Amino acid sequence: MEYEDTRIEDAVLALLALYSFDGGRSWKGFDFGVMDRLSEQGYISDPKGKAKSIYLTEEGLKRGLERAALLFGNEGTGRPPS
Q1: R_g of the chain computed on alpha carbons
Q2: Per-residue pLDDT for 79 more than 80?
């Protein structure tokens, strides 16, 4: 099955933002190609190197949280928040 890269990037960015700490730091346990593309788009710091985490840029954190609300939010679903 073929997947749309933009939708995958949005989902990964959303997860990075949701589980970020220390003002935008997040663990980098996602596909290298996706992480490279997010870095090229200016949403995260360069994922290459020995560090096990990356930093979300201000724009990346904002877009990631917006995408998380769209992809994973409970509002309008009829489900109670967890």
Answers
A1: 13
A2: no
Tokens of 4: 């749309």
Number of folded domains that form the chain:
1
User: Does a structural domain hold residue 57?
Assistant: yes
CA 6 to CA 26: how far, in whole Å? 20
Q: What are phi and psi of 53, to 5 degrees?
A: -135, 165
Q: What is the pLDDT of residue 6?
A: 94
Domain boundaries, position 57: 5-72
Q: Which helix (H) or strand (E) holds 58?
A: helix 58-72
The stretch 75-81 carries a mean pLDDT of: 54
Work out the angle at residue 42's Cα, subtended by the Cα atoms of residues 56 and 66, and round it to the nearest 5 degrees.
Answer: 60
